[in-house]
């Protein structure tokens, strides 16, 4: 019997939905707009696909229900706070987290398409194409001064005002930059390549186990290239996420791996040692050539850095969670509500104004925390429930020939402790699609309680929570530190220890004063710069500062070789917003003054020399008054005792 007109349309719609999904896999590494259009087309056509597809979708309603539940609670919270929105629908449609719920619709649709055996070969091929596009575009962006996405869309010409790439240092005579592929940010690109690196790692291990030398070398070469780009990408949160999910899968499949690798022989061990030495030497070489990588690794243990401002973000986030535990603050209101919290910090310590101003406050930089704040505790718990099912599925997934391992999608769990990847459309959309592909091709082997998944989620969540409980227990006055630029990083660290915190931290101030820190003669005679204070005072609109700028220099009578002179150059430095942190800022000297230093406290005072606006909207026409300092008059044959510096609370030193 000839198929009816409607059944033909239904079959055609199903095919269009599937092929749109395949093209989506090719598009998301290249274009955000194209990938969203193809995702929308796949969803739309699926609505008119055969009825059998809607029967199959029932198998994926449980995990999808957790996702939709989390988004729905944000919507309910938004309705509850209706009167607090200046323009509800505008804020909700443009800024609310619940508005992204449509991205998750691709999850069950991808699962249905992936569940059909006849589709999997094509899906496998397109996954490889997707990965190669991400890798190639990433490598190309390493050597591109311009952001490739905008550069290509502008006809291979830089548009005026476009931000350029972040320089990473020279390599073999070529200038290199942070790889971002065709994306707008390095964090987005780091998220995309993270989907594939764990799977590629497992393929290499699988080929080693199967003694397939040809594919081991081929996959290994791709893995090394991907890891090189990934390392240069500087996404520390993605690094942790990839490491965590890879370890989780290997441990959950330990029985499949153990005892099945080639036997240990002297020759194989020798080859492994040579490879490890070569790999270690390569990593060391790239580390020495890349100043951004050096800075990134050095900042891992610091609270306050230009990029790592999680301390301040969470300090502003947790009060919101405590005040609105059940229904949350409402979608799209994180920035507004966290700004209210920041006022209490600034009113207590005005020097924190600039620090909190440049701290990104559009979201909580933590996926679970973000949804718990805007949608209530239950919204965050529902996301935890989804990840429980995801890691149960990852643990049950197999390494069959012709299947690209998609375990990498689990990186978002740990990486999401430090970055809101679920709010990044460029990452969230492929995440839902790839999660659906994994769910569809892996038949449910067991619906029993997963101990491995529970242990993994619990341990990682407790480790992260414990770490931040410890970090956030540090008072804001001690977490804040004025930026110091010196001839070397070790010298800058020593100078930071000689700068006293705010006056209310009496115990720490006394401790630092009593310390003896010595530096070499060459370091002691080198100039360093110290962040000062703003020319205008809080609140906004800001009024011109009327007090003189001052700081104290303490010389202990018991020191052996302190300096007897200090040379201070006051310089003006532009204030700037969070989008310009990597740019050079216009600086110019305002005046130089030399002081003789005597034992005890010495005072440096500087009066404003420029005519500035009496009232302005921060940060417009607001500048820093900072200091270049050089110590003199000490015995160059011995180490110099480094003086203590006290800028008070706001460059207002008082004896």
UniProtKB/TrEMBL annotation:
Keywords: Ligase, Membrane, Transmembrane, Transmembrane helix. GO terms for cellular component: membrane. Pfam families: Wzy_C (PF04932). Residues 222-384 form the O-antigen ligase-related domain. It is found in: Membrane. It is a multi-pass membrane protein. Its main location: membrane. The chain crosses the membrane at residues 21-49, 61-82, 123-143, 187-205, 217-232, 238-254, 266-287, 371-391, 403-424, 449-470. One of its GO terms (molecular function) is ligase activity. InterPro entries: O-antigen_ligase-rel_domated (IPR007016), WaaL-like (IPR051533). This is O-antigen ligase family protein.
């Amino acid at each position: 019997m000839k198929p009816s007109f409607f059944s033909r349309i239904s079959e055609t719609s199903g095919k269009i939905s599937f092929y749109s999904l395949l093209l989506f896999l090719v598009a998301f590494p290249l274009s955000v707009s194209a990938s969203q259009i193809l995702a929308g087309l796949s969803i739309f056509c699926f609505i008119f696909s055969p009825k059998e597809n809607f029967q199959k979708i029932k198998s994926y309603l449980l995990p999808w229900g957790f996702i939709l539940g989390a988004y729905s609670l944000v919507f309910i919270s938004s309705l509850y706070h209706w009167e607090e929105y200046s323009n509800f629908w505008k804020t909700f449609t443009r800024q609310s987290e619940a508005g992204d719920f449509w991205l998750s619709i691709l999850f069950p649709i991808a699962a249905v398409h992936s569940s059909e055996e006849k589709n999997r070969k094509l899906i496998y091929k397109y996954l490889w194409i997707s990965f190669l596009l991400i890798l190639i575009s990433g490598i190309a962006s390493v050597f591109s001064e311009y952001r490739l996405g905008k550069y290509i869309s502008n006809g291979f010409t830089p548009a005026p005002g476009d931000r350029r790439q972040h320089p990473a240092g020279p390599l073999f005579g070529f200038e290199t930059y942070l790889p971002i592929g065709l994306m707008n940010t390095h964090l987005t690109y780091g998220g995309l390549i993270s989907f594939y690196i764990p799977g590629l790692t497992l393929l290499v291990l699988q080929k080693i186990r199967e003694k397939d030398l040809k594919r081991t070398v081929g996959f290994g070469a791709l893995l090394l290239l991907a890891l090189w780009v990934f390392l240069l990408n500087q996404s520390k949160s993605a690094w942790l996420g990839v490491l965590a999910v890879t370890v989780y899968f290997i441990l959950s499949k330990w029985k499949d791996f153990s005892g099945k690798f080639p036997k240990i022989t002297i020759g194989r061990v020798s080859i492994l040692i040579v490879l490890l030495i070569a790999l270690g030497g390569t990593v060391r070489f790239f580390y020495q050539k890349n100043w951004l990588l050096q800075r990134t690794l050095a900042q891992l243990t610091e609270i306050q850095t230009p990029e790592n401002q999680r301390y301040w973000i969470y300090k502003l986030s947790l009060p919101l969670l405590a005040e609105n535990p059940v229904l949350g603050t409402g979608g799209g209101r994180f920035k507004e509500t966290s700004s209210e919290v920041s006022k209490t910090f600034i009113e207590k310590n005005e020097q924190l104004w600039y620090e909190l101003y440049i701290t990104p406050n559009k979201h909580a930089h933590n996926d679970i925390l973000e949804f718990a704040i805007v949608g209530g505790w239950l919204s965050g718990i529902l996301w935890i429930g989804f990840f429980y099912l995801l890691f149960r599925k990852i643990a049950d997934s197999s390494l069959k020939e012709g299947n690209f391992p998609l375990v990498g999608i689990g990186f978002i769990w740990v990486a999401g402790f430090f970055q809101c990847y679920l709010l990044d459309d460029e990452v969230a959309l492929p995440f839902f699609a790839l999660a659906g592909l994994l769910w569809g091709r892996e038949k449910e082997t067991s619906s029993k309680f997963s101990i491995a998944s529970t242990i993994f989620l619990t341990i990682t969540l407790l480790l992260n929570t414990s770490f931040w409980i410890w970090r956030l227990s540090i008072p804001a006055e001690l977490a804040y530190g004025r930026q110091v630029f010196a001839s070397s990083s070790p010298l800058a660290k020593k100078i930071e220890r000689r700068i006293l915190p705010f006056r209310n931290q009496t115990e720490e101030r006394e401790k630092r004063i009593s310390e003896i820190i010595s530096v070499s003669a060459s370091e002691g005679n080198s100039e360093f710069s110290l962040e000062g204070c703003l020319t205008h005072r809080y609140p906004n609109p800001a009024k011109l500062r009327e007090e003189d700028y001052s700081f104290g220099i303490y010389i202990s009578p018991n020191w052996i070789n302190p300096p007897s002179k200090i040379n201070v150059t006051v310089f003006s430095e532009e204030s700037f917003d969070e989008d310009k942190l990597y740019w050079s800022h216009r600086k110019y000297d305002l005046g130089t003054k030399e002081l003789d230093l005597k034992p005890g406290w010495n005072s440096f005072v500087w009066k404003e020399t420029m005519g500035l606006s009496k009232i302005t909207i921060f940060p417009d026409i607001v500048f820093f008054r900072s200091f270049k300092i050089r110590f003199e008059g000490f015995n160059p044959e011995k180490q110099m005792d480094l003086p203590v510096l006290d800028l008070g609370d706001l460059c207002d030193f008082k004896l």
